[in-house]
Amino acid sequence: MIGRLRGNIIEKSPPQIVLDINGVGYEVDVSMHTFYALPALGESVQLYTQMIVREDAHLLFGFVSADERATFRQLLKVSGIGAKTALGILSALSPDELAQAIASEDVKKLSSAPSVGKKTAERMILELRGKLSLAGSLNEGLFAPNASDGHLEDIVSTLLALGYNEKESRTAVKSLPAHVDVSDGVKLALKNLMR
């Protein structure tokens, strides 16, 4: 696997660039967010990459951040979403915007991405719920559990597995005692959800 590339940009033709690395030109498909963050032709850049091997091609996708690559990898796990569609989604929505749309179950926003209809958006919400993290201040307080107690994350994971959404699960654990164990925490959180 090729996990990262550093080289000079010798061609830019959205959504593809060519990186010159010691005389070898690597064709790399990038999201538009990454494309706009790239330096000028001839400049050096480092990209996090994901290589996809198919019967008819070896494709290389590049990302300006590890977070964007991680989001791309999660999108590939959603049934019906291939590499080109995942790249289109990341061109329309940043990783934080995508995580926020999933967390708030915003079908309309998700459907605004190319090749994503209502059913695909609903499938994304179902399959990615709780798997994408929000960075920075959006994550603090609104969706993040108390970091001092690792049991809270296990409780939230259990609630997600039971079919509750991210927001409901996070809200249910906010009022739990600080050092509750997982089994008691799940029982108390379920009581909170039933109110």
Can you put this structure into words, describing what you see?
With 195 residues, the protein is of the alpha+beta class. The chain has 3 domains: 4-63, Nucleic acid-binding proteins (OB fold (Dihydrolipoamide Acetyltransferase, E2P), Beta Barrel), CATH 2.40.50; 66-136, 5' to 3' exonuclease, C-terminal subdomain (DNA polymerase, domain 1, Orthogonal Bundle); 145-194, Helicase, Ruva Protein, domain 3, CATH 1.10.8. Helix content is 44%, strand content 20%. The chain is built from 9 helices and 5 strands, in the order βββαββαααααααα. A 5-stranded mixed barrel has the order 1-2-3-5-4. Helix 2 (66-76) crosses helix 3 (83-92). The chain is elongated, with a radius of gyration of 20 Å. The model is unreliable at 136-149 (pLDDT under 50). GO terms for molecular function: ATP binding; four-way junction DNA binding; four-way junction helicase activity. Residues 73-92, 108-127 form the Helix-hairpin-helix DNA-binding motif class domain. Residues 147-195 are annotated as: Domain III. One of its GO terms (cellular component) is Holliday junction resolvase complex. Keywords: ATP-binding, Cytoplasm, DNA damage, DNA recombination, DNA repair, DNA-binding, Helicase, Hydrolase, Nucleotide-binding.
